[in-house]
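Researcher: I've got a protein sequence and the SMILES for zinc ion. Could you write out the 3D structure of the bound complex as structure tokens? I'd like something to compare against our soaking experiments later this week.
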Amino acid sequence: MSSATTSSLTRVAIGGILHETHTFMEKGTTLADFAAQSLHFGDDLLSSMRGARSGIGGMIDRALEYDWQLLPTLYAAAMPAGVVTEAAYRKLLSELRNRLAQRMPLDGLLLALHGAMVAEGELDAEADIVAQARAIVGDGVPIVVLLDMHGNISPRLVELADVLLAYDTNPHIDAYARGLDAAEIMARLLRRELQPTSAYARPALLLPAQSTGTEAAPLSSVHARAAEIKADDKVISIAVMAGFAYADTPFTGPSIIATTDNQPQLAQNYAKELSDLLYRHRQSAQPTFLQPAAAVAEAQRFTGGPVILVDSADNIGGGTTGDGADALAAMLAQNIQEGTIVLADPEAVALCWRAGLGTELTLAVGGKVDDWHGKPVSVTGVVRALSDGVFECELPDNHFASFYGDTVHMGRSVWLRAGGVNILLTERKTPPLDLAQLRHIGINPETQSMIVVKSAVAWRAAYLPIASATIEMDTAGLCSANLSRFPYQNLKRPVFPLD
Ligand SMILES: [Zn+2]
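Model: Sure. Here is the predicted complex with zinc ion in place.
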């Protein structure tokens, strides 16, 4: 082929910037945090993310099947944490802008964004990103954006993008498939087969993260109806957004984005219908939980295996401290025999190591990292065991393997026995994903009367098989399902269930 033929190829740029921002977390998210998870520029983006089971992986794989020149910009993703620093945000934006400018003229732009990213000085990061991209590529060039369904979406973002689509599942098992869809929609836009018209509707509602599973109420019924709507061949995309309640912005909460082929009224009708449907199911979105003292009292009614006391407010996988001790205080106050809790507390670990095996000591444990996870609890206990905190997972397919590998390192660890309560103190916070975490230091999970787990959902694989019952607690923590604990300032009020 001659170079003249090559230059007439359809030119599609691709990129992504993803962050789920918990605006109440104090520690900001830096460029180093992006680099620690996923930060790729230019051709490195294609070689690293091609075939990945993620949204961008799906976009790339399908795009490569078309007769396009695929032009990578950047891909940046970091673990959920506090507000993205101004320096990090500026760097990511300027990389995107510069690389788009170098690639001009463009025929299309594919973007993977989260939807719940907040940067210093920018509450609507995704709209800002698309606005900046739009300013470079021009009005006639289609921009297709794939979102995480936990995004908080503004009307401005809906105006700026040609088509928005989102994952339909939580856990997000369809990210790759939706990435394929995004590239297919781009192909149809480039062939001028579609004239997208989008509508946006939002119920006055907040969903705690614990209520955003797509297989359960309230989202399951919305997705069931959305699936019927998608069968309409005038519909290009229906994005059912659950929102992310821990990002305090003026558009935080669930929303529906309906995109039709040149049928604006139809898009409006569908968006409104689904938004109203979600609002009608709002009561089922309210998790039921007990105060720690009531949960510990209730747990004593069960026999035949440990009761799992779920401390999802201190959900380590969601970025919390892992040192919330509310449930420990409740177990000690009620003189529980064989109750277990794991706390990340390097200071307490050091004290116990210094005291030595078999020593009795009084010390404050937990509640030390920030003001969000309750207060330290004073305990008097005996050091029953000391360990290096290294253990091999028992579960063959566990979440640890994907995050940490099969060998887990918790740092120096201590089994402190206070009355009848077993406290596993670790230097590093470690989610409750495998029973070997307790067993490695001598605590037998099966013979406990109750075990506190600091996780929303991920604990289930290891602990449900041995559990006699499960009780959700209303503890202090940055991932609390009790949204009245958070001092919102930007949120649009009134909103259910706060007002
Ligand atoms: Zn998500």
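Model: The longest helix spans residues 86-103. Confidence is low (pLDDT under 50) at residues 1-6.
Researcher: Great, I'll pass this along to the crystallography team.
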